[in-house]
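Posted in: Protein Modeling Q&A

I'm a second-year student putting together a small comparison for a lab meeting, and my supervisor asked me to include a predicted structure for cysteine desulfurase. I've never done this before, so apologies if this is the wrong subforum. The sequence is pasted below exactly as I got it from our records. If anyone can share the structure token output, I'd also love a short note on what stands out.
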Amino acid sequence: MSCFDPLKFRQQFPLLQKHVNEKPLIYFDNGATTQKPQCVLDAYQDYYKASNANVHRASHVLSARATRAFEEAREAVRTFINAASSKEIIWTKGTTEGINLIAGSWGESQLKAGDEIVLSYSEHHANIVPWQLVAEKTGAVIKILPLSNNGTLDESKLAEVITARTKVVACAHISNVIGRINPLEKIIARAKAVGAITVIDGAQAIAHLSVDVQALDCDFYLFSAHKMFGPTGVGVLYGRLALLEQMPPYQGGGEMIQTVSFAGTSFNELPFKFEAGTPNIAGVVAFAQAVRFLRTHQGQAFRDYEQKQITYMMHKLQNIHGIRFIVSEAPDIPVFSFTLRGHHNHDIATALDSRGIAIRSGHHCAMPLMEYLKLSGCLRLSLAPYNTFAEIDEVIEVLTAIVRGEEPGGEHKVASVGAL
Ligand code: PMP
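Accepted answer (user: helix_wrangler)
Welcome! Here is the predicted structure, written out as tokens:
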């Protein structure tokens, strides 16, 4: 039986060995971005030291070496999410750029006035604003799927909201605030039944679940390298080949063309048609290392450890006086969102920061969700498998002291309301 050792795992992350505000860093903001292991940092530097050149262009050794590493990374990602072809893997800057690409290319070329785009109340702004922009340009209309009491998209409303007028259904695999797995199988089946395309924002799911895009049967799946131990500035757009073939380019420039003359331009084959200009080669190469790293560790033992983190954290948090969870049931991934009655979120986050504890407070780029919940914001603790039970104990101790008034933490400033 494989065995996951969080302490050994943790040793591979240099930043986690540091102090912040003279205290050992406790990093509980992994939903925003994860820390990077030494092997990823090395891959990034090694690329610049040993292989740096532009890809797909020159016939010299370094360019060939860089191109090989770049394309091997694409193949590593293809295998990681079980896409049918590496032509379906498009490099982007991140999830946000991927959704903008789909909305800009597919959306602008296919949508017309009166067509409907279905989103949900729990979407990140990255999966709302690009659709609002395309709706404004095309006259398409946005409709919103409500949430059930357990925080996932309400399955009972699928047939009512996703109709013959629906052309796109775009939703998160897991919300960055709620942390629960959405019923994708049912959502995708309903979208297919009405002929709509499905766009799945996998930003929060990819580091925690094993994702198989063919089994999901979605049309698009997006994620960011930096949330899965990889560098910032790299993301993946998976798209079904037939759809990508039909779609017009998103940006123009070098690399994405076959021939250019002033009489007209013909475009490169996939995936290059969507990769204009010099890409983030070092980032992509380092990301391949992050994918290998995650594959090595992401077994059942890794998942069992995450489940133990969830159970332990929920149990401890429930005992804090005045806590109000956004969703009362335990999350599926270690993301815990809540408010503390009588305390201002920002004051709590600042008090924790002074103890070297990094958490997130605010609207979490999900303002429509906050409005739905009648909250101005909330606190979020998001864990990775390098977080230990001792760290959880430490955070709970500080939160408890704040609530008891034994630590500064903005007592009794606002009354928090709202929860699913
Ligand atoms: N969707 C979700 C659910 C997210 O959590 C995030 C990042 N917080 C994004 C989209 C956007 O990702 P990025 O900023 O890497 O493009």
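A couple of things worth pointing out for your meeting: Residues 61-81 form the longest helix (21 residues). Residues 32, 94-96, 124, 126-127, 172, 176, 201, 203-204, 224, 365 surround 4'-deoxy-4'-aminopyridoxal-5'-phosphate (CB under 6 Å).
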